[in-house]
Structure prediction request, 167 residues.
Amino acid sequence: MTSDTMTGFGGVSRAETIKIGALAGLIGGVSIWIYEIVVWVNIQHIMALSGLAQNAVGLVFGNPMKVQLGFPVASALGAAIHFGFSAAWGALFAFIWPFFRKRGFEATLVALFYAVFAWIVMHLAIMVAGPDHPNYGDQLVILNGFMSHFFFTVPMALIVKKRLGGA
Prediction:
């Protein structure tokens, strides 16, 4: 027998919803890095491949901390931050998806809006955390940010949809 405190939407347990969402978020986290390697590193040359994992440390704690930690520690911490947030955003999506599924929305459409929402929230938080952040008024920063987050949320949403039930 399950109670409302033990089940999420649609009869799936909260623990299973978190597990599905976190896994989907981790896959989305890999997808966003693949996009950034292809576009940011190899096409636009705005970041070195070696700086990809460290990027989160610089955004959260500032570039001086990233330098002070050194390459191996900053890379490990950056990957942990990146995938920690990816899993959390995935779990949140897994909890909100049933609301949209019941109303007949396609997961991909919801994912596009979720990407914009996630980018805005993350970057507002980065702006509050410290002064070391990109110029969020720059059109290239905005476009690159939204595009990379689309590559995060669309695969994540499709996995959540498949595991929790589609529209």
User: Anything to note?
Assistant: The helical segments are 14-43, 55-61, 63-69, 71-102, 107-129, 139-164. The first helix runs from residue 14 to 43.
